[in-house]
Design a protein that fits this description.
With 353 residues, the chain is of the alpha+beta class. The chain is 48% helix and 8% strand. The strands form two sheets. The protein has a four-stranded antiparallel β-sheet. Strand 5, helix 5 and strand 6 form a beta-alpha-beta unit. The protein is flat, with a radius of gyration of 22 Å. About 5% of the residues have low confidence.
Amino acid sequence: MTPVELSRTVLRAVRCAVDEGELSVAVPVRAVVTPPGPGGCGDYATNIALQLARPAGRPPRQVAEILRPHLSRTAGVAGVEITGPGFLNIHLEAATATIALVREILDGHANGHAIDSGHDSHGSHGSHENHTTPYGHTPTLTGQVIPLRIPYDIRAEVVADSLVRIVASQGGRAEVHHVRAGEAVTLRPVPAPEDPAPLGADAARWALLHPAAHDRPRITADHLAQRESNPLFRVRYAHARARALTRCAARLGFHGEPGAVPVDVPGAEVLVRELAGYPHALSAAAAQHAPDRLARHLVATADAFLAFQHTVLPLGDEKPSAAHRARLALAEAAGTVLAGGLALLGISAPDYL
């Protein structure tokens, strides 16, 4: 079960409670589902009980207790716990959650390519109906226009350029306006100490985007080094390795297919967790005007993938099995997320590195 599906599940639980007379509230349009915060547990958490407490005229924990059995009866949900003032922490059945997550990532990628390349006989784009949006893209900011008032500065330009795409991924529209000295700004990252252009387009953008806005970026040749200490290299290398695994598997006569990946496979559990957290990283980057949130999440995803990649292909005389197909699909999902995230930052993701 993916975050989007789980959000719908939470809303269905509210609707059931309302229909059965347990709650007297208007069913919200949207339920926020995120990875658990400090003190939480499980795979995902929602604050829906806190959101409904005031209109229901009940304490948040009491609302959570009403919703818990409706959530617990959902297929794919292994259990629900209540923590803090009334957060619902949801444990998913591991196999079901992983399969759904990988399928959503890969389906969104495949449909996105079909839409980009599909034309009708008159040369216009084909219908967009019934397609799956790219993984992590949501309608959260639909209808919202976000003004970005920036100074004439290269780092502010690059941050704003990335935010235009990140905000668009959440359904909104960011409009960039330059202001002169003394005028009010809404986005003013600490300027770079020197011109980053000599690093080249990709490394220069990473050098300006990876640090938080309040941190001074480092403009050094370290961003060009093809070694483990360079976060940009790790992200792009992880993407290239994911693509290489697909090519190697094809030569061995098998392809990726979403399936159960046991948590005891080295790196699998962490990789699944990072992939599941990608939509939250995107929405946080858009809401906080912080593309560094996305950049850091890509580094964590890449590191998890690099720990996992060695388990994907058969070894020695081992024959490809359903387990290998499932691991390959998970690896391909990681590559898809890394490529998509880099594209939102305006950085290329080469298949060969």
